[in-house]
């Protein structure tokens, strides 16, 4: 048995699990400005200069975090404290967070809390101008492994389909018998016209009786 195996058995006998030996311990001290390499499961702290006291004017600090292997990991940010000078479009004091495919400018109380990067790399740059200062920020950054989803392919068995032949029963057509229609002839009764008898009118001749006028002789 190798020495490392003996040590592992001895440690496990003390109640320390093997899994806990593989997880890096969180770094207690805040990182200095500059580049830092992390391992999956490791946590680091970044904060503004002089934190928890106010940061100085005209200050600048850049942190570059790389979690290896970069392609299969990501970074997660939790920022319980974030107090910078507020300004429109964050043109004064600000924290710029750049990661793969993303760039954020944070100021005032708008922190990067909850940000998750696309891979295991990020660069954070802190700027302060020559005017107002504030308490600053403190963020915890975790290096985490990306979850790999395995795809299971299920083979499909195709059962051949048996086609039953269809029997067609011939249709018997019953001939239709047509009964001839008998037409009854219409009998026309001739109309008898009764001749009209004209009675001749007899004209009675009128007899004129001459009127006799008496003649009176003059008196002598």
From TrEMBL:
Alphabetical UniProt keywords: Disulfide bond, Repeat, Signal
Domain of life: Eukaryota
Pfam family, one: CUB
Phylogenetic placement of the source organism: Eukaryota, Metazoa, Ecdysozoa, Arthropoda, Crustacea
Stretches for region Disordered: 151-220
Domain called CUB: residue spans: 33-144
Leader peptide range in chain numbering: 1-19
Cystine crosslinks: 90-107
PANTHER family attached to this UniProt entry: OVOCHYMASE-RELATED
Protein's name according to its UniProt entry: CUB domain-containing protein
Record-linked InterPro entries: CUB_dom, Sperma_CUB_dom_sf
